[in-house]
Amino acid sequence: MTFVRNAWYVASWSRDVQDRPVAETVLGENLVLWRGADGTVRAAEDLCPHRFLPLSKGRVRGDNVQCGYHGLTFSGDGACVDAPTQATPPQGCRIRTYPVHENMGLVWVWTGDPALADVADVYDLPEYHRPGWGVAHGDGLDVEANYLLLCDNLCDPTHVNYVHPSTLGNPDEINAPVTHTDVPWGVVTERLTPDSAPTGFIRAFGNHAGRVDMWQRYLMYAPSVSIIDFGGAAAGTGAFDGGGEGRVQVFSCHFMTPVTETRTIDRWLHVRNFAPDEPAVGERISEQFRIAFAEDKEILQAVQAEEGRHEGRAKTGLDLDASAGLFRLKVNRLIRAEAQANAQAAE
User: Fold this and answer.
1) In the 8-state DSSP scheme, what is residue 293?
2) How does DSSP assign 36-98, residue by residue?
């Protein structure tokens, strides 16, 4: 499988890991997550080495996870700490464990070399934690498509008018220029639309009836985190400089976890600079996003299906593909670097 393994991926919402084991698949590996009595989330391979029953079919006992077949119990470091009917656990009875970190209401796991796992590398949006900003946690969009197809989509503001005409699209920006920037952590794609009619979203949540200046900034972090910074303000009042009359700003955050080569879960949330203490506003935004993301899902699944049917056939390129192409190049470089490092370590 062609994945970057030395990276943090979202395995679950924190809210979904409570007093029972949870099964998740990340990069083709079946994991079990559980929250111990101490409140800490742990992650391990979802397999009891005795009869191979998934540990997610068992239960949490204190800080440990217990197999639901014969009661073998494993600690967060993978050691078997109890084997009923015998005085000591079988020698060498262990399971693989994974580094875990919680942030932004999400459980992140590291699937690569544990020695390289650094929680400082877990993505964090500063506005998520700041007073005056509202947060709404969304859903997990389950898409039967390769994760890089989702990344392509999230490097591309030009699709919005055609896929999301009722919510995020705007006829005034169809020919607005798109630029992109190569940054150390990925790619930034930007589209500015000055003196424009407001989109349905900006009109609904910013109460803008007149002309506005709007922006879309797609921040793609390798290998699969996307932060879309978008919004608008009254035309000519400084929207592009961080201000603006009636400024509406939203960070739409997407954390895409490859499940297999052709299935991805996009767990999403959003952070807004208005009505921070009104959950109903966050839910209204989520409903708008659910409409848009369902539209994306339909497109991406159709593309994945046709790619399978037309394997090897060359695609026609457009200028608008530049940022997505650059992002794929960067991800492929990471994959090759890992492969080279593994090969050298095996010599």
Assistant:
1) H
2) -TTS-EEEEES--TTT---GGGSEEETTEEE-TTT--EE-TTSBEEE-TTSSSPPTT-B--EE
Distance CA(72)–CA(13), nearest Å, equals 27
| 220 pLDDT tier (thresholds 50, 70, 90) | very high
- What is the structure's pLDDT at 168? 57
End-to-end Cα distance, the chain:
22
For residue 310, the model assigns a pLDDT of 86
Q: 217, 323 in Cβ contact below 8 A?
A: no
Interval 134-191: pLDDT, tens: 999 999 999 999 999 999 999 887 766 666 555 555 555 566 788 999 999 999 999 9
Query: Strand 134-143 vs strand 186-196: parallel, antiparallel, or unpaired?
Result: unpaired
- Tell me how far apart the alpha carbons of residues 250 and 167 are, in angstroms, rounded to a whole number: 14
Task: Identify residue 62 by its one-letter amino acid code.
Answer: G
**pTM higher than the cut 0.70:** yes
Provide the H-helix boundaries in 214-321: 279-309
φ, ψ (nearest 5 deg) of residue 152: -55, -45
Q: Which amino acid is at 67?
A: C
Whether residue 134 contacts residue 127, with contact meaning beta carbons closer than 8 Å, is answered with no
Given a contact cutoff of 8 angstroms between Cβ atoms, the answer to whether 127 and 39 are in contact is no
Query: What is the spatial distance between Cα 56 and Cα 73, in angstroms, rounded to a whole number?
Result: 12
